[in-house]
Every structure is written in C-alpha cells, then in structure tokens.
Design a protein that fits this description.
mainly beta, Immunoglobulin-like, 645 residues, disordered N terminus
Length: 645
C-alpha cells in the first residue's frame, strides 16, 4: 500500500473560479485610495487596515470516536472538534466573514495553527492550511442501511464558502481577497492507493464577483460521492488553500492574506443535488452588549443610563419553509444564579435564502433590555446573558447553534472591543509624528493608572521596534485638547503570546473626570499595527492627527486599547527589567516598605490615589492608617498589596 502524500505543487482546478481580480490591488490597497485624507498642512495621512495574524486555533477536547453518517459541523462552538477534525492550521472564529449561514466559521489563510506565517510563504504560490476530517465509515456498518453503500445511495458532501475580503463598503470589510492564482481545494482520500485526490477547486475571486453571478455572497457547493474507491471504512475529505503574499515594502504591513471561509459542512446519504435546505433555525452573529456604548466598563463607572434599550440579534431559518420559533433569554450572576429572564414568545421566521432574510420581529431580533445590572462600585463582577431560539416545540435538527452567550463584564477597565482582532490598524503619513486618540466618557472622577494595548505580530516582528509615548488629552469641543499626561520615556510594542494584551503602567497615576482621550504619539511613520475589532463599531470615538487638525475615523470597528483605573490596573503587569525585590507589610496600623536599593516609593489607596511619594529611598513608614487595602510601588517593580487592619 502506498503512503499518504501531500503535494505542494500548484493545484489543477477542476472547477474554475468565477472571475478574477488580476490586475487589481488587494482590498486593503483599494481601501487606501478610497480613504485617503489630505490635511490642511498638505501632509497626507490615511488610516490603513491590514489582515491580522490570528491566535492559536481553539480545539475542543472531545475524544475521537468511530464516525458514521451523518457528518455535520457548523463551527457554532467556535472551536475545532477533535471528534470530527484533524488539526491542520484552520482557524475557527466568529468574525472573519460577514453573515455566515450560522454562528462561527472555519477560516483557511496564510498562517499555521500557532499563528505564524508558513515558512514557505513567498510571493509565489504556496500550500497553507488544511481542514481534514477524521475517517468516516462508508461501509456495511453504516446505520440505518446495515449494508455496503453504493452510488445509488446518493451520498453528498455539501458546504458553504466565501472568499476573504468581505463585501459592501470598503471601510467595513474584513480580511483579504484571494488573487486569481490563489485557490481553495477539496480532496477525497483514497484509502486503497493511500493518496488524496482533488475533486473540486475554485480560483481566487472577490465575494462581489460571486454575488454578481449567483445573487448570493456565501456560495453553496455539493459534491457527490459515488466512486467505489471512497465507499469504505476509511473515507476522509479535506479542504486546502493556496496563497501568495503581496510585498508592500512597508514595515509592519506584510501579514496574513488570501482567506477562505467555510461553514455548514454536511455529509449524508439519501440527499439530492442542490439540497440546501435543513430544518434548522440558528443564530448567525454573536450577541451584542447590553450596554449602549461599551463592551465592558469599570464597576465604579457604571450607572443605569449606560444600559442599552435593546440588544441586536441575527437569526436565520435555513429550511425551505417559513417556521415558527420560540425565543427567550436568561441572565445569570457570577454564582450561576438566574437574576432575570425574558420570554419573546413565538414568531414566524422567513426562509433565509429567499432574499437573504433574517428574523425581523423585534421580540426576537431586537428584544428589550428591561433589566439594570445591580453593580457595586467596589465589587467588580460579571453577568452571563444566554439567548435561546427554538423551532416549534421539540426543536430542530442542529441544537448546537440554537444558543449564544454574552458575558457582560464590570471590572476596572473600559473596552469597546470584544478582545479578538480581525484586522490591524495604523496610520501611514508623510509626517513622522502620528497621534492616535481614543475617546472615553467617565461618569465619576477616577484615577487612570494603565493602558492595555493589543499589537498584531507581523512578518519578522517588524513593528516591534516602533517607538511611541502614551498620551492622554482632555476634551476640546469633541476633539483632543490639552495634553494632561505624556510619558517621559518612549515605549515600544510588546507581545505577550497570542490574543493577549500588554499592560503599560503610567509613570504617574492621573486623576481625571469627564471626557478624556487616551492613545499614543508615534515617533516614526512606520505602520504600528494595533489590533482592530471589526465586529463592534466605535469609529466615532477614534481620532488621529498627522498635521494640524484631528480627523475622525471612517473605518467601522474598534481599536483594541483599554484604559485601566484604580489599584487593580497595576497588579500583575509585565515589566521588562529585573530589579532587586522589595518587601511591604503592615504592623499595628503602620504600613512599612523596604527595598534593597534606593528607589522611588509610592503608596496608593484602593482607588489608585497617591498618598505618599518618596524619592531615592530604601524605606517608608506610614502610621495611623484607616483599615483597608493599600498599594505600594517601588521603582519599576510590580505593585504589592498590603491590608491594614
């Protein structure tokens, strides 16, 4: 028997992609031209979004078993199931393509399972991700036939696909469109010969080109399995993609490219050609925040007027007939106790594929927020909001996509973003000094102590040495005004693994109130590649300056910059340097701190307000303190907590 082989040669397309984008730049280059803004000073600056390096692929840790028909996965668990798939670089996510058939999708791109560019990546075509099934029995043990399957059993594998780059307005698109030479390939495994055989492929093209030919963005494809060499106990199938990099000759910009998105993979017997209908009602997008402005916010800053009036949900009916659905949601506190529930009753939902319709009844698609979270200023907490939709009384055939959960966080930071970047953000300018500012509105006075930022890794980590200073501005009629804080030393992007923020502690805590702008002033024109979440729109609060006047972003999404307030912001933050340790403790109402070498020692209360600063000192004593929690910082050491009784 021959051994399994995987060719790295350019694939031969058995189905030619519709159209091609040869001779045109990639989507982000077109976006540059569309979004170019020339300032009064004659210096040109423009916002640029780039494809992003994804985090390591989440994998569901369920044990593999012998697979029989039907085979189905719509990736609604947003993790790759080891019961169904072999790990091969594909990234399961919620937001890399707009409006999939159901919540979650698998994305094949130019990065491996660890989130790094493939070593073979060049401007020429190279083999990238694979999404391969585990062995599926198509032999006599198949239930309910209890006999060997044959071509007469009408076995079809079907799936939906969409090339990267999205569709619609250029400033709202996600990802990168595969070029004409790129491709998505489907292969079947011949267990007798030990080879993978190509059975379908499509060349790179844009979603808009596909829509012009079919009237739909997400494309349905099915492939009949009729050859006897596949009808055995070791049938497998896999998707592969081929990419090519575009060299932009710009530091920090060469990153991910040429995505293909796959959803709703189904394999079964007794099907027919173009069998798109499945008695399935499902969520399409993740739920929105119950707050009107933020994805998360500090507990101390929360007030009832921060609550949204309604939440937005997208629900689809993938069946061929209109169905009736039941909808409700439940809110649970951190202890798992239900604190509120909403019953939306029954509503009819139209057929999804007739004009791309979704549930429009407000009781289901825009349910009211009739609950105010009982948040205590001194008690950070979170609530889980679980949404359910069910077809009829007993439910439909795929219950895993009938629920979605949103976790509402009240901690010590503000966030417009959901924590996952779909793009990289930066400013290209002829000016070497670029400022990026992010607007936040405080309800009560508070102490800003840190900024948490997400920087995307790029080819060769080229953006790791770009220098910047953290800057905070007050408000001047809707734009950043006076600088109220700026670092004395320049910083640079740091990377704490994948899908992780890096916390930068301010050199001095800043007491602030009202509207503030937090961000950076960059000391080069290189592309810094900040994380950018395309699924939560805070563009009205993003401003940039590369001349004489501030510009408001036109890019739909939110920067992954989070301001932190109070003492918790300074705990467990990373520091590059290793300094001598210091000790801190309390005795009879006296707080004591000592260091091995002279340091600047600062003492804070629980809200981050400075109680004492002593420079070039080895110790500090603070007697007669009220009972409570205090924070001590010596030089660049991590903060220590001391509880005074």
């Amino acid at each position: 028997m021959k051994t399994t082989t995987q060719s790295t040669k350019t694939p031969t397309l058995t189905m030619v992609g519709i159209g091609s984008n040869r001779g045109t730049a990639k989507a982000y280059v077109a976006a540059w031209l569309l979004m170019q803004l020339c300032l009064v000073s004659s210096l040109c600056a423009q916002e640029v979004l780039m494809p992003v390096r994804h985090q390591p692929m989440p994998v569901a840790k369920d044990a593999p078993e012998v697979l029989t028909l039907p085979f189905f996965d719509d990736f609604s668990n947003v993790a790759l199931s080891q019961r169904l798939w072999q790990v091969g670089g594909t990234f399961v996510n919620e937001g890399y393509a707009p409006l999939p058939p159901t919540l979650g999708m698998a994305t094949l791109d130019a990065f491996d399972a660890a989130g790094y560019l493939y070593p073979t990546a060049t401007g020429q075509l190279f083999s990238c991700d694979t999404l391969a099934s585990l062995p599926i029995r198509l032999d006599s043990v198949f239930t309910p036939y209890q006999r060997a399957l044959s071509a007469e059993d009408s076995i079809y594998l079907s799936f939906f696909y969409l090339p990267g780059g999205g569709y619609g307005n250029m400033w709202e698109r996600v990802g990168d469109t595969p070029e004409g030479s790129d491709s998505l390939v489907l292969e079947f495994y011949d267990a007798i010969e030990g080879t993978w055989n190509q059975v379908w492929a499509i060349g790179g093209c844009s979603a808009d080109t596909l829509f012009a030919h079919t009237g739909r963005y997400w494309q349905f494809q099915d492939v009949c399995i009729s050859e006897s060499k596949y009808l055995n106990a070791n049938f497998r199938f896999r998707f592969r993609n081929y990419c090519s990099l575009t060299d932009l000759n710009k530091i920090g910009m060469v990153s991910n490219a040429d995505q293909w998105n796959i959803d709703y993979v189904m394999l079964n017997a007794g099907r027919k050609r173009l069998d798109t209908a499945s008695r399935d009602v499902a969520f399409v997008l993740s739920a929105s925040s119950m707050l009107s402005r933020y994805h998360a916010m500090p507990a101390r800053q929360f007030s009832a007027n921060e609550m949204a009036d309604r939440v937005n949900l997208t629900i689809a009916n993938l069946f061929s007939e209109e169905l009736a659905t039941d909808f409700h949601y439940h809110i649970y506190n951190e202890r798992g106790t239900e604190v509120y529930n909403y019953d939306g009753g029954y509503e009819n939902i139209p057929v999804f594929w007739r004009g791309m319709q979704y549930q429009s009844s407000p009781a289901h698609a825009n349910p009211p927020v009739a609950y105010t979270f009982p948040v205590s200023a001194d008690n950070p907490t979170s609530y889980s909001v679980v949404y359910h939709v069910r077809e009829g009384v007993s439910g439909d055939v795929h219950v895993q996509n009938d629920s979605t959960t949103f976790v509402q966080v009240f901690d010590n930071y503000y966030a417009y973003d959901d924590g996952t970047p779909e793009n990289g953000y930066g400013i290209t300018s002829t000016n070497s000094r670029v400022k990026i500012a992010y607007r936040f509105r405080l309800n009560v006075e508070d102490t800003l102590t840190a900024l948490q930022m997400y920087f995307n890794r790029t080819l060769g980590e080229e953006n790791a040495n770009i220098r910047f200073v953290i800057t905070v501005w007050d408000d001047a009629d809707g734009v950043p005004g006076n600088i109220i804080y700026q670092d004395s030393e320049r910083r640079k992007p740091l990377f704490e693994g994948f899908n992780q923020y890096v916390r930068y502690i301010l050199e001095e805590p800043l007491v602030c109130s009202g509207t503030i702008y937090v961000g950076i002033e960059q000391y080069s024109s290189d592309y810094i590649n900040l994380g950018f979440d395309r699924n939560n729109d805070a563009s009205a609060n993003i401003l940039y300056l590369s001349g004489t006047s501030w510009q408001t972003s036109i890019l739909r999404g939110s920067l992954m910059i989070r301001p932190y307030f109070g003492y918790m912001a300074t705990l467990d933050a990373p520091h590059a340097e290793s300094l001598a340790q210091f000790r801190a403790y309390a005795v009879n109402g006296t707080l004591i701190a000592t260091t091995d070498t002279p340091q600047t020692i600062r003492v804070y209360d629980a809200l981050g307000r400075v109680l004492l600063t002593r420079h070039n000192s080895n110790s500090v004593r603070l007697p007669n303190l009220p009972a409570g929690l205090y924070l001590i910082k010596a030089g660049s050491h991590n903060v220590k907590k001391v509880l005074v009784y």
